[in-house]
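Tokens help. Our protein:
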Amino acid sequence: MRNLESFFSPRSIAIVGASPHKEKMGNVILKNIRLAGWQGRIFCVNPSHKKIGDLDCFSKLSDIGKNIDLVLIAIPAPFVCEAIKNGAEAKPKISNFIVISAGFKETGPDGKKREEELAELAKKHKLNILGPNCLGFINPKTKLNASFTSGDFKPGKVAIVSQSGALGVALLDWTENLSLGFSKVISIGNKADLNETEITNFLARDKDTQALALYLEDIKNAPEFISSVSRIINKKPIFILKAGKNTVGQKAISSHTGSLAQDEAIISAIFGKMGVIEAKNISEFQDLILYASSDSVPRKKEVIIVTNAGGPGVLAADYVGKSKSIKLLDFPENFKKELKKHLPESASVENPIDVIGDAAPKRYADVLEHIAEKYSAHPILVILTPQSQTDPEKVAKILVNLKKKFPVLTTCFMGGVKIKKAMEYLHRNGVANFESPERALAVIEKLIQFNSARKKSAPSAEPKEIKLKYSANCILQSVVSQKREILYWDETKRIFKSYGLKLATSVSARDGKIVNFNNLKYPCALKTDDPKIIHRWDKKAVILNIRNERDLKTALRQIQKATGTKKMLVQPMAKPGLELIIGLKRDKSFGPVIICGLGGTFTEIWKDRVILIPPLTVSEITEELKKLQIFPILKGYRGDKGYNLKEIANIILALQNIAAENPDISGIDINPVMVYNNGSQYQILDAKAYLRSVKNN
């Protein structure tokens, strides 16, 4: 891990491109550093000036001759690498740089070449370079605004990391408007050198940071990032808003697995595996930052709601009722009886507690004080609408005073003009206010899910079940030599057998001929074994329920005429059961991912599937299967027996092992695998294995 302490808490800074002219970026950066109140030493670098204000100005970094902890560069892109090289070769050496300048890979081939040169300089001289094309960073604790955006920034608990400088500016303006503080704001730009992994590693050790909020458009080194996040997720929650999930131009093979396991679903599965809290949109991202700026991770999933308005209370209860992660706390009768003493007859002591519309501030205070005596550990949401007898500002002051008694106290003051001052007071004093009950509860729900996930991710006695047993190199080399991208049935069968998987009984037919009809069992199915035909139903390359030899010969002619194929398979018709799809895809960023769900002809229509991220255990697989819509059927429904979940898990583990042992296999489709709830063993009726060359992503 890199040591970035002097980078983000420097004692001396040089600005390459510093300028006395207000319209220049170097002038803006210099002004921001001085206005924020940072107390370190500043050096200006610009060959066109001898002094800038009261500061001496040097022609180049090497002329300074003093220790420089951090250099900010704001000059035209073609001159950036020369300036960094000069600093790296200076005496004493300079190691930390922020490249504010744009004009790199985002501008085309010439810019890309400059960025590659920048990365090479970092590697050669062991430098830390943030950017290029970035905003810079802000460290409120040290009063350092090393960026080109201005504002009055206050210290807080959340670190914001943004790949987009413009979004970073917007978030800063939003936090300032709500009087929110933050521990760091770091813009990473094009990530020529420092990327999200190095920044995450640094923030993991940063004592001022209690939660991380990352906006990412891509993940530069996915395995390293996953490793970094996995190390710290039990200590600090991480929120990620990931853009660019469905990049135009990315192509997947037209297999069932490829179409079901696209980037967006894979990324969500990866985040779920790590315990990351994924924001679906910018509003949710802001809500998570708002919450984490004031509240801790909730430990209990039973929520308490206090409201002065029936409608919003019902909406809140509706949200909780639909959730699988949170629920309303059920108060015992003796508690409700005591609570009733603080409320008028028409009020409700059920949860949500309705203090009714004429509630004065004292009624809120009495109810909340009574709740604090027994249930302060539970998340509490206080809803207020500005009715005629309501005093929002006084209620806000009561809530701020009570905040120390509740680890999780969020509010929803609903309205506009009438609640504006109260809302501002809440935010200034560390109480998160949300625009609607649903948004407040959605954040609490995500944090509850996070807390549950990190408990499950604790080290388990159950080993990860990757067992390398067999290499298919000899088979794969033969396929490659024939310039094929998909394995034949018998090749797939041999590989599967080595990993404990058995394919359905089949007889091969070549050139429309079957050697021995006497060995066939009817009814049977006929289908192609042609790697070029991926979806047989679409190409009329499969015929089911063939009853006799005459119909089989007719079917052979039909498929041959329709497809021109010469290699086919005959299989006995399987007993009816539940059809599943189980598949493997080797993602270009994250490696092997496995899907499991409802199979058969309509698998891509229903899209009832889960994505599993190796390494896996039987218990992890079983937990993921619970997310399927068909899980009630798998478990046993309306008197029917359940299916053997361990048998399904073993198929998934076999694919995991195949992927680990055979990196040239890029994908596998098993569709369908017929599973039974009557004690019969599963049957894999169709399976295809693809080589890496066939995958474009």
The longest strand covers residues 665-675. The radius of gyration is 31 Å.
